[in-house]
Specification:
disordered N terminus; Immunoglobulin-like; globular; 4 helices; mainly beta; Maltoporin, Chain A
């Protein structure tokens, strides 16, 4: 019995791994090095003395891995049958690594910020051609939608109920958001995911970055990093709705020890789930750079060209049961056509052991139009006189028109970092950007106008926007466990609008803003498994171009929005389990929302509401249930309220609008619950199967909290299977299958509604966006 007890106790014995991480040549302690066990959730970071500890690990064989920016990764096979003490020496890499390019705008591990990192492998495994919002839809508090119903073409995303115009998006630290609308049109970046190495999503205000203010989240993309070996990839996808994706990628590897070039070409076509919601998409990515021991100079060109048939109006609610795929547009060229080219020149330079300088110059050129058929459109709407046709006077006619955009966005970003590698890190950064956008409309076809050679231009206007920001971030470590963080940003914006809009209104105006955005926080590492953080932040945001242009001249002009954000979080990690919980409170002053108010020509406008808030709890975790089975889960629970909301409903009988005081209401498109569940089973080393389920609770279409104008909750599950192997000189062949919506759930995840009174009756016009039922995508990847 005693022998049995001894054997059992030995089998359940737990040991500690302690050690010190140092630079190999100088012996200097490295603070902040990541230390973990491969294939396990247990991990930690070294303290200012370079020391670390991993506690309570069961006896067995493991692979220890240590990483630190600018140094080669360290791995060591260990046999753990007693406490282990190690001295780990990291070698400085002979060339500077791409991570330094985005270091100034990313949240680091010990910084008090709520964030999720997504790596290249996670993106690649589900990249069958859908837009990036769909590839990020499993991250916390994310809800996505697609006009075409299958995630290709025009797509959108919300984080914590916040739409993309309030989410800051950067590529290598360079702003991606359209400067005028502050939105991101993912359709202009087709298959950009194939050139993304990693993504960080910061929820809440996050850290200071470049571009539009983050009012709910920020998304930071890093593009393809240096691959030291030459490669060539071919990716082919095919699936439902005659969807095809062809992607060819190649890289030279490191040439002459310093040079590298990467290229990608993509072609994407889909007929869409919705009738005639077809997409024809092309894109290109070219990256070339010099990599030295302390220097990186890198040029990047991305280009995307899209032609999509319009499905913007959605499906009327009364058609959802009879024809969920209905598209009201039937004109053969009711299309959107746009090309966007982006150029970046990036440079990073290390100076000594403690200083790093980053700089970037960028230029984005976008141009295109959408064409539409207008039935019996009044001549007066285009500044045209009535037409005398014999004895008849025509006041309107069928016509075809195009609305054009031609815009330029250029500027520079910079940052300087001092890191003493012990307990102090200081970053000073910022950006200066300028935008110029031309908008004009042409009538290209009308039986009663003489426009056979030259179209008739009925409106033209221009928007200019200048922006400058500068920030300082300070990280201070106290007693090896407490990390203090301060982040102060000054930002100034100048908007100048000039010209006539499509409703023949003079929208000329100028607006100047000055913002101060402070952020403070603290992280406390209780021990190697438990940590907590608290962050307080203030953010200010200017109205976008449409808010200014659409405002009623007789009413109040839109003013800046202000948001105070509190984030409180806790994380836990062990060998088999990692978990986090964070609570947040986002209090808005003068948030711009739709109230039903209209301007002088009947367009809906955004109005400032004095008080509103979002408050919630987000949970996420992962567990290794068995040797081959892992479970990942995240969920968000929130309240999203406008305080003392007043709605406006058009009165066509008497003119004007009817006002209703509704008290506290739910903010539109802000579900109280979101959840994602992912079970992955690894049958063999190269064969995985995943069941991914998503739940989104009820969403209100407007801000009135009326259930009659809401989207029903939905629960959707996808099944992903992957098998990879090597064959002769081919480095990897990967075959994959994605079955989407395997239970054929009928659901809508976006909609719009317009309400009015006419002839004494209450009326509604609306459009819902149904998503595809069960459908599939297959993929083949070959890497040479």
């Amino acid at each position: 019995m005693l022998l049995l007890f001894t054997i059992t106790a030995h089998g359940w014995a737990q040991y500690n791994i302690t050690g010190t991480v140092r630079e190999k040549n100088s012996g200097q302690a490295l603070s902040g090095a990541s230390v973990g066990i491969v294939g396990q959730y247990l991990g930690t970071v070294s303290n200012p003395s370079g020391e670390f500890i991993l506690k309570n690990i069961k006896q067995g064989s493991y692979t220890l891995k240590v990483t630190y920016v600018g140094y080669s990764d360290f791995t060591k096979e260990i046999e753990l049958d007693k406490d282990l003490s190690l001295t780990i020496e990291l070698e400085k890499r002979t060339i500077l690594q791409d991570e330094v390019i985005i270091s100034a705008t990313r949240a680091a591990e010990n910084e008090p910020s709520t964030f999720t990192n997504v790596d290249k492998q996670e993106i690649s495994s589900i990249n069958f051609g859908q837009d990036l919002p769909y590839l990020l839809s499993s991250t916390p508090s994310v809800v996505v939608s697609s006009d075409a119903g299958n995630g290709i073409g025009y797509t959108s995303m919300r984080i914590r109920g916040t739409d993309i115009s309030r989410i800051n998006v950067t590529m290598n630290g360079v702003p991606v958001n359209d400067a005028e609308s502050q939105s991101v049109f993912w359709v202009d970046l087709p298959d950009f995911a194939s050139s993304v190495d990693n993504v960080q999503i910061q929820r809440g205000v996050g850290t200071s970055t470049n571009g539009a203010a983050a009012f709910g989240a920020s998304i930071n993309f890093q593009t393809t990093k240096l691959n030291p070996s030459a490669y060539a990839d071919y990716n082919l996808s095919y699936g439902s709705f005659n969807t095809w994706k062809n992607t060819l990628s190649a890289g030279t590897g490191l040439l002459a020890g310093h040079w590298a070039v990467d290229v990608r070409l993509s072609k994407l076509n889909s007929e869409g789930y919705i009738e005639r919601a077809a997409s024809d998409l092309k894109s290109m990515f070219i990256s070339g750079g010099y990599y030295g021991e302390k220097t990186i100079v890198k040029a990047i060109i991305t280009s995307g060209k899209e032609k999509t048939y319009q499905a913007w109006n959605g499906v009327p609610k009364d058609s959802l049961k009879t024809n969920r795929r209905y598209n009201p547009f039937t004109y053969e060229n009711q299309t959107d056509n746009y090309q966007q080219d982006n150029y970046q020149l990036l440079a990073s330079q290390e100076i000594g052991k403690h200083f790093l300088i980053n700089a970037a110059a960028h230029y984005t050129y976008g141009r295109g139009y959408y064409e539409e058929f207008e039935e019996y459109s009044p001549f007066a709407s285009y500044g045209l006189p009535d037409v005398i046709n014999g004895i008849d006077t025509l006041t309107a006619a069928d016509l075809v028109r195009q609305k054009w955009m031609n815009n330029h966005f250029y500027g520079a970003t910079f940052s300087g970092t001092y890191d003493n590698k012990k307990n102090l890190k200081i970053i000073v950064g910022g950006a200066g950007n300028q935008y110029s956008g031309d908008h004009f409309g042409d009538i290209i076809r009308c039986n009663y106008l003489n426009i056979t050679e030259h179209p008739y231009r009925w409106h033209e206007n221009n928007t200019k926007k200048n922006e400058f920001n500068i920030f300082t971030k300070v990280n201070l470590t106290i007693k090896k466990k407490v990390f203090l963080y301060a982040d102060l940003q000054y930002r100034t914006v100048k908007f100048v609008l000039d010209g006539i809009d499509s409703k023949l209104r003079d929208v000329s105006q100028t607006h100047i803003f000055h913002f101060f955005n402070p952020k403070l926080g603290v992280t406390y590492n209780i021990n190697d498994r438990h940590s907590m953080y608290l962050a307080l932040a203030l953010s200010n945001r200017e109205p976008n171009g449409n808010n200014f242009a659409d405002a009623d001249p007789a009413g109040p002009a839109p003013v800046r929005e202000n948001m105070f954000n509190t984030e409180l979080g806790y994380t836990f990690s062990s060998k088999y389990v990692t978990a986090s919980c964070n609570g947040y409170f986002m209090y808005y002053h003068d948030q711009l929302v739709l109230t039903g108010e209209i301007n002088d020509v009947g367009y809906a406008i955004m109005s400032n509401v004095p008080r509103s808030y979002r408050a919630g709890i987000e949970l996420s975790g992962a567990a290794r249930l068995f040797k081959r089975l892992t479970w990942e889960l995240n969920a968000g629970f929130s309240q999203n309220k406008i305080i003392n909301f007043t709605e406006f409903v058009d009165d066509w009988d008497n003119g004007g609008q009817i006002q209703n005081q509704l008290g506290n209401t739910n903010i539109a498109f802000s579900p109280a619950i979101t959840a994602v569940n992912d079970f992955t089973y690894n049958f063999k080393e190269h064969f995985n199967i995943s069941l991914i389920s998503r739940y989104v609770s009820r969403q209100y279409i407007d801000n009135t909290s009326d259930k009659a104008r809401s989207l029903d909750p939905f629960f959707v599950s996808d099944l992903l299977m992957e098998y990879s192997f090597k064959l002769g000189p081919i480095k990897e062949i990967r075959v994959s299958l994605m079955l989407n919506n395997i239970f054929n759930e009928k659901y809508e995840n976006n909609a719009w509604v317009y309400r009015y009174y006419y002839n004494g009756a209450y009326n509604i016009m609306d459009g819902y966006f149904p998503q595809a039922g069960i459908n599939f995508m297959t993929g083949l990847k070959v890497r040479l």
